[in-house]
Amino acid sequence: MAVHEFSDETLDALLAALHVRAASHPDNPALIACWPGVREERMAAGCRELGRRGHAIRSMPLPGRTPGATRMGWAVAAGA
């Protein structure tokens, strides 16, 4: 039996936030979190679940909090 970490409502909010970010910041479309439902450390899991549900989501490196560091952000794939 699969464990459902994210509710449908949380995943819908995450997908909507990804689309809003892509539309409002086409030069920097990635999110690192979608509060309160998907914290930064759970974004990979949330985005994998969206992918399993058929949504085109991609990871992309973003500048980190310290010089030279990177962290992962997530965005809807172009044209999705």
How would you describe this protein?
- The protein is of the alpha+beta class.
- It has one domain.
- The protein has two helices and two strands, in the order ααββ.
- The chain has helices spanning 8-24, 43-52, and strands spanning 57-63, 70-76.
- It has a two-stranded antiparallel ribbon with strand order 1-2.
- β1 (57-63) and β2 (70-76) form a beta hairpin.
- It is globular.
- The termini are far apart.
- The model has no long low-confidence stretch (mean pLDDT 91).
Blueprint (SSEs and pairs):
Blueprint: H1 8-24, H2 43-52, E1 57-63, E2 70-76
Antiparallel strand pairs: 1-2
Order of strands in the sheet with the most strands? 1-2
- Total strand segments: 2
Low-confidence stretches: none
Overall 3D form: globular
Average residue-wise pLDDT: 91
In a nutshell, what does this entry contain?
This protein is an alpha+beta fold. It has one domain (8-76).
Primary descriptors:
two-stranded antiparallel ribbon; alpha+beta; 2 helices; single chain; 80 residues
